[in-house]
Amino acid sequence: MNRRTALGALALLGLASAVPVHGTAQQVPGISNEEHGAEIRRYRSEALTAANAMLGEWQTAWAQDDLRALARFYASDALLLLPGDVAPVQGRAAIQERLGEYLPGSGAVHLALHDGAVGGSLVYVHGKFYAATTAGPGRDAFSEGGSGTYTAIIQQSGREWRIRAQLFRTDPEPAAVAGATAAGAEESVSALPGSR
Questions:
Q1: Sign of the torsion angle spanned by Cα atoms 50, 56, 60, 65
Q2: For residue 21, what are the CA distances in angstroms to 10, 11, 16, 18?
């Protein structure tokens, strides 16, 4: 091995040993790995708790039909998709307008958190929503006591938490699921060669 090749190999070996192995924790100067891990766990716990508390306040504002309070929970460029809506609305002003159309007579809604994750300044939550029954023609899942799933992305901005995106999906009616399953099976069978 010539001298140039040996120096090149040593340089590569030095670079390879300086690069951290994927999945290993980096040592933070002045903080042990155990302390660093505890800080991360504490932050994640506090962030999920704060997001859950904010969603509880959101539910109260919804139940009181407090449009102004509800709008303040959303980021200026937030997205909202309500049950029955085909497309989401975006922006605090558009959300406030949509909620103004939607809230009257919609009844209370309860959010049950099933899962959550924290990544940087974002909290991702997923759960089930349950809506109170309210009488009236032409009501949707919220006003008919329906249920479904929701997903929310909540972003920390300073000391405040704001909803960045909130999507609701209603559970299909049991009869509709059975009908769709039967129709799908018929279509699958009729699509087979020689089935007609």
A1: positive
A2: 19, 18, 9, 9
Beta strands 109-119; 160-170: pairing state? unpaired
* Residue-averaged pLDDT of the chain: 75
- Look at residue 36 and tell me whether its pLDDT is greater than 90: no
Our measurement of the distance from residue 143's CA atom to the centroid of its chain's CA atoms, rounded to an integer in Å, reads 23
User: What residues does 106 pair with on adjacent strands?
Assistant: none
Name the residue with higher pLDDT: 177 or 39. Answer: 39
Q: From the CB of residue 86, how many other CB atoms can be counted at a distance below 10 Å?
A: 5
- 73, two tokens: 């929970």
What is the reported pTM? 0.67
pLDDT at 192: 42
The domains located in the chain, with CATH, are 33-185 (3.10.450.50)
How does DSSP classify residue 27?
P
Rounded-to-integer distance, Cα 149 and Cα 155, Å: 20
Give first-to-last CA distance, the chain, whole Å. 76
User: For residue 68, what is the enclosing H or E element?
Assistant: helix 67-72
Residues in the chain, total:
196
Q: Beta partners for 131? A: 109
Task: Identify which has the larger pLDDT, 19 or 98.
Answer: 98
